[in-house]
């Protein structure tokens, strides 16, 4: 039996606190009076300003920031800033935080839609056990709004996701504060306006943007990608909203797409990857980055004919999969061909590297060595195999007869 979190059964939100248009997005263009009130949001996502760094709302255009402007942001012995409030937890880890951006990635058909569905549904309900929702738990939305924007799928796919969310919650009709939109037919300009309207007109608890790359002409436009992520971060912080963006991985897996993906990795509160083992017909949620708190062990799930939906694998099978994944990672630390290719690329532009520099190169090249711990294992394995040596803190590549790149 599902337990729904609501003060009264799907009570209407307080319309005195939220403008009437907030109950339904009728236009992506914000009314002029709202634009004046929230000028920052309107400027932030307009196409002509996506390459501009916006000034704080208190600083007039063209005015330089002075020391007095910084005082409200000063951190000292008398200030006490708590850690951001967790909004989405996965297996107990803090993936999505209030006022910050998090990211979900993975190849097509890997199970991302299922993960998104449980992020949305658990804002309104708790299933019988955490495993029923793949160990995904979103903080109760209460009367705040939960929004899903789909920029890349056919509207029928968006409808299927919406209907699954209602099924997970256990209700026949959409809650008044759950807003699901398919904006595939919108231009990039209109999509940006839609995001601005949603921030301006709703009291956002959670916003999921599926297809963030479809807001930009190119994911490799460094200036516009940097500006977009900075601007979304400003909006998330100002409105105390947890924002989750969905972006595809590069072909072949591993890294997220383009400079946009790189910037997300640098700025996000959490990054997870959803993968599929086609032979076993199993899926997994893997922790790539948890900014605040510990990471989580992989969560494995598959389709249950009995329940007619995805369910988490039992504890014994999950432990077996975790041990197998760990063994596969450990195998790379002992693989001479792999390590020789890795170190060959690390030292392509330098004859010697410090430990910090070498660790950074390993993490840059090897997408499975993003943590210092994993990078250090790669380095230790290369030393043990005589691929590199360490002389007084300076690491040097020892060329073999056939340097092969296995990355």
Report on the architecture of this protein.
The protein is 33% helix and 20% strand. The protein is α/β, with parallel strands linked by helices. Strand 13 and strand 14 (309-312) form a beta hairpin. The radius of gyration is 23 Å and the shape is globular. Residues 1-57 and 401-407 have low confidence and may be disordered.
Give Rg in angstroms.
23 Å
Report the helical percentage: 25-40%
Record the strand order, biggest sheet: 8-7-9-10-4-11-12-13-14
Structural class: alpha/beta
Describe the global form.
Answer: globular
Unreliable residue stretches: 1-57, 401-407
Task: Tell me the fraction of residues in β-strands, as a range.
Answer: 15-25%
Q: Mean pLDDT, as a whole number?
A: 83
What is the straight-line distance between the termini? Answer: 48 Å
Main sheet record: 9 strands, mixed
Can you write the helix and strand succession as a string? EHHHEEEHEEEHEHEHEHEEEEHHEHHEE
Our count of helices gives 12
Question: How many runs of DSSP E, i.e. beta strands?
Answer: 17
Could you give a quick summary of the protein structure above?
The protein is of the alpha/beta class and 407 residues long. It is 33% helix and 20% strand.
List key phrases describing it.
nine-stranded mixed beta sheet; 17 strands; globular; three-stranded antiparallel beta sheet; disordered C terminus; 407 residues; disordered N terminus; alpha/beta
Topology:
Blueprint: E1 3-4, H1 32-37, H2 39-44, H3 67-70, E2 86-90, E3 93-97, E4 101-105, H4 112-121, E5 125-126, E6 136-138, E7 145-150, H5 155-169, E8 178-182, H6 188-201, E9 204-210, H7 222-238, E10 242-247, H8 258-267, E11 270-277, E12 282-290, E13 299-304, E14 309-312, H9 315-332, H10 336-346, E15 352-353, H11 355-365, H12 372-384, E16 388-391, E17 394-397
Parallel strand pairs: 4-10, 4-11, 7-8, 7-9, 9-10
Antiparallel strand pairs: 1-5, 2-3, 2-6, 11-12, 12-13, 13-14, 15-17, 16-17
Helix pairs in contact: 4-5, 7-8, 10-11, 10-12, 11-12
């Amino acid at each position: 039996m599902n337990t729904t979190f609501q003060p009264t059964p799907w009570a209407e939100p307080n319309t005195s606190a939220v403008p009437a248009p907030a109950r339904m997005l009728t236009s992506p263009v914000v009314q002029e009076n709202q634009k004046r009130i929230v000028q920052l949001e309107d400027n932030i996502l307009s196409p002509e300003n996506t390459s501009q760094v916006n000034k704080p709302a208190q600083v007039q255009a063209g005015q330089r920031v002075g020391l007095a402007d910084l005082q409200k942001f000063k951190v000292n012995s008398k200030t006490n800033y708590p850690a951001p409030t967790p909004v989405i937890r996965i297996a107990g880890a803090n993936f999505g935080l209030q006022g910050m951006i998090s990211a979900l990635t993975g190849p097509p058909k890997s199970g991302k839609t299922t993960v998104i569905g449980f992020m949305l549904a658990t804002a309104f309900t708790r299933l019988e056990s955490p495993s029923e929702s793949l160990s995904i738990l979103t903080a109760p939305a209460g009367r705040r709004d939960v929004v899903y924007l789909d920029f890349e799928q056919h509207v029928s796919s968006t409808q299927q996701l919406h209907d699954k969310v209602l099924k997970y919650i256990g209700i026949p009709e959409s809650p008044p504060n759950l807003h699901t939109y398919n904006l595939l037919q919108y231009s990039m300009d209109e999509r940006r306006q839609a995001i601005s309207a949603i921030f301006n007109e709703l009291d956002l608890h959670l916003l999921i943007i599926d297809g963030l790359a479809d807001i930009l002409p190119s994911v490799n436009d460094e200036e516009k990608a940097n500006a977009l992520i900075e601007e979304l971060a400003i909006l998330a912080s100002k409105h105390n909203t947890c924002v989750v963006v969905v972006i595809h991985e590069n072909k072949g897996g591993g890294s997220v797409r383009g400079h946009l993906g790189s910037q997300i990795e640098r700025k996000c509160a959490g990054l997870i990857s959803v993968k599929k083992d086609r032979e076993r017909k199993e899926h997994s949620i893997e922790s790539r980055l948890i900014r605040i708190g510990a990471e989580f062990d992989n969560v494995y799930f598959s389709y249950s004919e009995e329940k007619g939906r995805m369910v988490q694998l039992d504890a014994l099978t999950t432990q077996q999969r975790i041990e197998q994944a760990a063994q596969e990672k450990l195998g790379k630390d002992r693989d001479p061909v792999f390590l020789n290719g890795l170190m060959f690329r690390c030292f392509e532009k330098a004859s010697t590297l410090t430990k910090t520099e070498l660790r950074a190169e390993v993490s840059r090249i090897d997408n499975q060595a993003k943590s210092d711990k994993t990078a250090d294992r790669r380095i230790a394995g290369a030393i043990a195999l005589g691929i590199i040596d360490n002389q007084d803190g300076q690491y040097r590549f020892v060329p073999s007869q056939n340097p092969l790149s296995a990355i």
